[in-house]
Structure formats: C-alpha cells, structure tokens
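Continuing from the previous page of notes. For each protein in this section, the sequence appears first, followed by its structure tokens. Read the first protein now.
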Amino acid sequence: MPEGDTIYRAAVRLGAAMAGQRLVRSDFRIPALATADLAGERIDEVRSVGKHLLMRGEHWTIHSHAGMDGLWHVLESGRRAPVPAHTIRAVLATAAHEIVGSSLPVLELLPRAHDLDAVAHLGPDLLDPAWDEALAAEAAARLRATGAPVGVALLDQRAVAGLGNVYRGELCFLRGAHPTTPIGEVAIEPLVALARRLMVANRDRTERTFTGDTRRGRRTWVYGRGGQPCRRCGTRIEDAMLALEDGALRQVQWCPRCQPEPQRAEPLPA
C-alpha cells in the first residue's frame, strides 16, 4: 500500500499538472459518480493528507484513497494510460493533460466547503506543512492512547497519518523495539520525531531509503528481509504475521537480537 511519502509525491505531480487549470472533461467510471460532470471546474490545489489525496476545486473536491494498488497517472493529451482499461475509475482532462485514476477503492466527490471532514478522523499528518511541537505532542498522545503493541499502533491512522508496513518495520528496528512491545513501554516522543524525519527525508526521493543507501536491495534494515542476516549484528531476521485491531494480518520483520521480544508478550506465530 502506498504510504504518506508516496501520496505526497503524487500530490506534487498532480498539482503541477492541475493546479490553476480548468477541467475540460471528466469521466467517472463508478456507479456512484456515473452522471457527475466537472467540466469547467477549476482545480485550486492538490494535497495529500496521510494516505488520502484531495483534488480541491472551486466547488467540488475529488477525494481518493489508493488502497493497495491505486494510482493516478499524469499523461499528455492523447496518450493512453499504462494500465488495463477495466481498472480505470476516473479520467480528468485539462487543456494539456489527462489525469487517469486506476484501481482506486475510494473515489468520491465532496463539497469543497466540507471536504476536510473526510480526513477529520486522522491523526496528525507526518508531512503536514504546519508540523510543529503541538502536532508532535498530539501524535505521541494518540499513539499512547491506543494501548496497542507498537507494531499495531504505528499503523493506526487515527493516531498518526501516513505510516504503513514499511515504515512500521523500519521504525521499530531503528528504535530497538520488538513489534509486540506495548506502546506504553516505548519512548514515544523520539519515535514520532524519527518517523517525521524519515518521512520528510523520503518525500522527494524516487527511491525510498532507511539505511542511507539507495542501491537496490540495500534500502531497508528489516522490511522484506525475512531470513536474511541483520545488517548490524548478522542475526537472522525473523518474519511473521501480526494481527491488527480489525483482525487483518500484516507481515512484519524484526531482528531478535537488536529488537528483543518483551518477556510477557505472546510470541508471534511462525
């Protein structure tokens, strides 16, 4: 699933093509929006909020969430999108570009005056331009209030917006926390500060890295490296499934030496 830095880059790319431009055509290919016509609507800005994307117009906002596979493509007029036609959910045309949304599980039109209600449930966005000590403190308080293991709390978008499976695994490793460590036993403020630093560092990179090395296969400490030696100590990286509050399972990796398991935690299933 795209994480906050990926959606941020998408907003920048879409904003460069759309902001200040009027739509000359719109084609929504989902039943709920089949009769919607935004031709003539000027798009004022495109912004990301966590994993959500808002194309904010004069009167209407196009709100989307990418889910696991969703993408927005910016194409020169007349070019075909590099995706199967049956996955296309929206085509938005300006004088110079076609913006094509594919495989979007969430796509809706909202009145501009109330569009931020769609993201009001989210915790502080790690890439919020207005990020300050108050937002950092709110994010820490919300994480603490989850009462969940750190590996679950970091994925709770109501606590802090933008983090996904990759960031969760890398943050836990860098802070030396086993994913099942209760959030109350983790130094939360430094964790939030690190999450913000990493997200900002990666937001303008095409190749996200947590190690500082942008070469393929060298960018993560533990994510996607189950069974391989830890880059720090050489111990075999463990790989298991961790249940979230909604019952969904997410793959998680950790180093058993660098991230010792809390004694009273139930071991993760193999």
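Done with the first. The second protein uses the same format. Note its length before scrolling.
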Amino acid sequence: MGVEVFMAVSLVLLSGFGALFQLLRKVNGWFCEWKVGERRFLLPPGDMGWPLMGNMFHFLRAFKSGNPDSFLSSFVKRFGRTGIYRAFMFGSPTILVTIPETCKQVLMDDSNFVPGWPKATEELIGKKSFLLITPEEHRWLRKVTAAPVNGHEMLSNYLKFIEASVISSLESWAQLGEIEFLTELRRLTFRIIMHIFLSLEGETTMVALEKVYTALNKGIRAMAINFPGFAYYYALKARKTLVAVMQRTIDERKEVRRSRGHESSTLRKDMLDSLMDVQDENGRHLADDEIIDTLIMYLNAGHESSGHITMWATLLLQQNPLAFQKAKEEQEEILRRRPPNQKGLSLQETREMVYLSKVIDETLRVVNISFVVFRQAVNDVMINGYIVPKGWKTQVWLRNVHMDPKVYHEPGTFNPSRWDDYTPKAGSFIPFSAGSRLCPGNDLAKLEISVFLHYFLLDYQLERVNPDCAVNYLPHPRPKDNCLARIQKIRRSP
C-alpha cells in the first residue's frame, strides 16, 4: 500500500511540475510578446522558452551534444520550413532567419538592420569596433582600412612573411613528435597577424599574447556573467591585458614618429600606422580607443578563423584521398610552370590555385566557423509574411544555410568539386557574412590558408593520434584534443 501511495503522489507531483513548467513557458511567451501589441499576431512561429533562460538551454545542449543542427531542426519539425522563427536568445527576444532568402534580406538591408551582438561580444570586442559603429562610420573606416589588409600591393608584401613563417613552422613541427596541431596553427596565424598589424615579433611575446586572445575568444559567445568560474569573467580580464599592451604600443609608436619626424613617412607601414594616419573630411584622427577596438576586432577574427579553417582543410583533405591528390597535383603543376629564377610563391600563383580555392570554400561551408551573425531591427520589417518587430534581435543562421539539403546536395559530405562551374545564388554561401558587413579580412585569410596548404601538400602528411576524437562546437568547431597529431615530412616526387 505504501508503494502505491508513493507512486501516486510522485505521479501527481510530476504532473504538477509539468503543468507548472508549461505555464511558465506560456507566461514567458506572453511577457515577451505583449509589448508588440496587435503586431504579435504577425510574429513568425516559434517559442520563447523558459523565463530568463529562454531557449539557451536547448541551444547549449544541442551544440554540446555533438549534433548542433538539432537545435534549429526542432523548430523546423514543429513549425515547418518557414525560414523564420521567434525565440528568446542571449537575454533578448530574437528572430531566427535560416534560409538563403531570409538571410539575404537581413544581411543586405542596412536601412532596417544594424549589428545586434550579445552584450558579451560588445564588451569584449569593443564598442568602437566595426561590429558596433554606425553604418556611416563603418563605411568610412572599412574603406580606409581595406587597402592595408586586402590591397594587391600589401598582400604581395605580406606573402613573403607568411611563406617564411609557414616553412619554418612546418619544419619545426616535423621535429617535435606529437603536437596539438590546432594550437600550433593558431600560434602561427597569430604571429602572422601581429606582424602585419603591429610589427610585433618574438616567440615568447607571441605565445603569451595568443593565450590572452584565447581567453578573450572563449567569452565572446558566452553569457555575460561577470563572476569567477564563467568564461566572460576571464575574458574581461584578457581584454584589459590586451588594451594595456596595445595602448603601450601606440604610445611607443607615437614617440618614434615624433622623434623621426618626416623620416617616419618613409618607413614600412603596418595597420597601426595606417590607423594612426587616418583622418576624415574634417581632419579628425581616430582616438586611441577607436584604434584599439579596431585592432582587437581584426586580430581576433584574423587569427581565429584562419587557424581553424587551415586545420579543418588539412584534416578534410587527408580524409578524402582523391581530393588530396587533386590538390597536390595542382601545387606540383605550379612548381613545374615556375620560372627558374623565381624563388618562392608569387601572388599570381596563389590565384592560379583554382582547385585549392574550391577546397577552402568547401571547408568554410562544411565547418561553419561562424555559425551565426547577429543583427537588430531598427524598424518593423516584414519577411516572408511575418513581422520582425523594431528593437528585436535577429540571428542570421549561416550554418543552417550551408547544411540545408534543399540548398546543397548531401551537405554533410566534403566535396570540393561541387563548386565546379557553380555560382551560388545570393544568400546561400555566406561564410564571411554578406553585404556592407562582409568580413574585411577575407582575402588575407584565404592567402594564409592557401600558402600553408601549398607547402603541406607538397612536403608533409599528418597522422592524428585520436582520429575519432569528438568535436566541440562552441565557440568554434574543434576536436576536443585540439587535433593531437604528428607532422611527417615526405620525399617530394621528382
């Protein structure tokens, strides 16, 4: 009898808790939507999750389960493939856009959508960075920084340093035995980007600063909880360290420029020099905090994306022997066509790597280093017959577009040849975002990746210690062991 009573009471309690949770979900949905007034009837389908937490529990569970696509697939199963849903994410009512048509509309419409990044991202990258300044400021600053990053002359200058760094790193790794391949690649790309942007060198300094950037990056997609034990807390400390280092570098650069006077104009310029020289039509120069936030944004994006994509491109090529052989033959052909008096790669040769470019694009599509872009509506906007209310956050789900079987045949399959004679329609291939907010360093990133793969394909192979290692998907996809591996030098074919 006692067991039966216990079971009955337990059943009643469970039913009560279930009813309470459902009630809380409904109350949360009503609370989020009532401010929209009558327009709430035009909101897209979806649910607002739990009070305070919203849909974040389900989001984090999906990305930590090894099946990140299950988060959005649950919306599709419940509400259909509308391409637009409502949710509560990162502390705000949010509209999720998930198919090429809706993503294109949000990314290309600067008059109705502005950056709407979570608080953690805003605080860590900086409120004076590209991510948060007004469209007018963004267009101006992007224009004046484009040439030092992506201009033909500058890329040609960067190429020699990138090439020398790649060659020495691969030779060193081949002597070390087991290495964390991703960790070493991130150090390599960080060293390259610090040289290009700040002319900083020195292995000890680079390793120390790269660790600080790692802590910063872990907090960018985290909840803004400033308390010991949380990623955001340690990321804020990392930002403080980086700001101090950059301020010291700016002060030192100003002193050098003062002491050398006109002579300083004849010296090689890096990104810091370019930012210090910038002035608008009224003669205003950038303040130190504007320069620092711009550099933090560029440096973080530059070494994180390049390092991760290089690792995944290397792994995916090794896992697909036919693609590996085709890419390798292309690099060997480049060597055969090279004039005898030419030493090292030329920028023109990197642009002749047609198949390798497809390998990089396919890696960007499959891996999705940046799975989502954040915007905010500044006006009421209609998308696919639904309203995006003014003030609501909008998430552009790049990952969902790239992994959608209605957009790409067998999207989970790595197939560089899918890009043969194929031009994706607008909104269907957006690894660097799109529109006016397209990543300004994408050409430099592709150059770094191409140079590394060129030398790796010609002379090296990689043997993973844990080939079946699970993958973490936050903040970026990576093997849990950071790709523990051995780099082996091979004899080049005559």
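What the second structure shows: The CA atoms of residues 19 and 294 lie 50 Å apart. The mean pLDDT is 86. We return to this in next week's lecture.
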